[in-house]
Specification:
Layout (H helix, E strand, L loop, with lengths): L7 H52 E4 L2 E4 L2 E2 L2 E3 H6 L22 E7 L2 E6 L4
Antiparallel strand pairs: 1-2, 2-3, 4-5, 5-6
Length: 125
Amino acid sequence: MKDKGFTLIELLAVIVILALVLVIIMPNVTGILNRTQNRLNDEQKNAVLNAARQWGVSNLSHDGDDVYYGGNKITYITIEDLQNSGYLEDKKIKDMTDKGDVPLNTKVCIIYKDNQFVYEYDGEC
């Protein structure tokens, strides 16, 4: 009577085939994950910028190239200020590329140029 089962050679062949499939697929999966993380970060930055623009429409004025909020000259608004004023959800914002949190003191710079307010995420204010 012959024993039923796989030989060592058959098992090794299956393992080699699976390893080859993994080697072929892994770079593609890694690339997709990296692109997705970068897109998520860009979308989060756009959400913060849109919140700053909405806040600016309601609160900002200008005199020449100077930007004013409540009579005081300003150059930026922080994520925390946007959250406290209700223009951005009050929760932690994750940086998807290094898995950390975006600091609440991250700035959105505001300047008045060419007859419009310009907003720049985490710029040098």
